[in-house]
Amino acid sequence: TWKYERDSNFHLLNSVEKSLERRFGGSIPIVPSEGFYERMSGASEKDIVHSGLDYTMERAARLMMKRAMENNLGLDLRTASFICAIEKIFTSYATAGLTFS
Predict the structure, then answer these.
(1) 15, 20, 26, 52 - which has most CB atoms within 10 Å?
(2) Helix 77-96 and helix 45-70: axis angle, to 10°?
């Protein structure tokens, strides 16, 4: 959860501060930067969309590369993407009961 991550980040900073104080002696305060606070305030809508898009694109690329390897296509990712698309169409039709198997 968001609160857990926030608390974990502060515990990490506190741990680093104590380690530095033990090593060098005296008080060595570690103050989080403005960017750190912004990062901990949570993901914006844009961050969430970009993260989801990145995840989807990565999965699609891995699937295309897998199909290219399975079908000995070399670097022909265009044909591999057609194979992936046809498989997805077939799966959708099969799920809807529109195919004969």
Answers:
(1) 20
(2) 100
Whether residue 1 has pLDDT greater than 80: no
Closest CA to 84 of 54, 57, 69, 64: 64
Q: For residue 81, is pLDDT > 70?
A: yes
User: What is the maximum alpha-carbon separation in the chain?
Assistant: 77
Nearest-angstrom CA–CA distance, 76 and 94: 27
pLDDT in tens, 27-65: 888 888 888 877 777 777 887 888 899 999 999 999 999
DSSP 3-state percent helix, strand, coil across the chain (nearest 5) = 75, 0, 25
